[in-house]
Design a protein that fits this description.
Kelch-typ_b-propeller, kelch repeat, 4-stranded antiparallel β-sheet, repeat, 230 residues, Neuraminidase, 0% helix, 2 domains
């Protein structure tokens, strides 16, 4: 297991090397940030990346919610290319005993495919997760989308897919058991517009979407999508 850096032991800050050495806040706590990904697993809050001022981040931390101590997670024997790079406005979810990080790298402006990274809390190591070749779709990377877990499937909705901040109304399904992407067809008497910066939650068999930004204006509409009819 990697060497933790705790708020109560600031003298250990110097032991954090490579990826994290220049991204520590005072006393071994994370820098102030926004646009990061976060997820709670057990008694820990995990956070990854984001932006601090004009600076993109790629550090990875967890907060023990009982002891209120931070740890900088330093993977063991992994090069920079074998773990996530600079990411912001991305998604982190927990499934099984692993964490999954979904988004696009700092070159998302080149419209690359969506990246998936898996983190194993037991070994403290990352692995690049490749969707199987028989996936019906290989979606482009995006930011400011939402990710909602329903059983073994992650539903990603909306977000921005290119340099010109062009939003989408795509609903994408990632089957985490079979490592397969697919586009979910949506239909009904009303059509949701492309949006980003919204929220999506699961309730009684439906995805509930609220708010977001459309045509550079904040929205207050509520949309419901019945997954049983997809």
């Amino acid at each position: 297991m990697g060497t933790p850096v705790k708020k109560s032991e600031p003298e250990n800050v110097a032991n954090v090397v490579d990826l994290y050495v220049d991204q520590l806040g005072p006393c071994g706590i994370p820098l102030m940030r926004l646009r990061h990904a976060a997820c709670i697993v057990g008694d820990h809050l995990y956070i990854h990346g984001g932006r601090s001022g004009y600076r993109a981040l790629r550090d990875f931390w967890r907060l023990n919610l009982k002891r209120l101590e931070w740890e900088a997670i330093q993977p063991i024997n992994q090069t920079v290319g074998s773990r996530p790079g600079l990411l912001e406005d991305h998604i982190m979810v927990n499934y099984g005993s692993n964490l999954f990080l979904i988004g696009s790298g700092s070159d998302y402006l080149n419209r690359q495919e969506m990246q998936i990274w898996k983190f194993c809390p037991e070994s403290w190591n990352w692995s690049r997760w490749i969707a199987c070749k028989n996936s019906r779709e290989h979606p482009l990377g995006r930011r400011s989308a939402t990710g909602t877990m329903v059983a073994n499937k992650l539903y990603i909705f909306g977000g921005i897919v290119d340099l010109y901040a062009k939003p989408t109304a795509d609903l994408i399904e990632l089957d985490l058991d079979n490592q397969a992407w697919s586009i979910v067809e949506t239909w009904g008497p009303f059509v949701i517009s492309p949006i980003y910066g919204h929220s999506t939650n699961f309730y009684s068999g439906r995805l509930i979407v609220f708010g977001g930004i459309k045509d550079q204006k904040a929205q207050n509409a509520v949309w419901s999508f019945d997954l049983s009819k997809s």
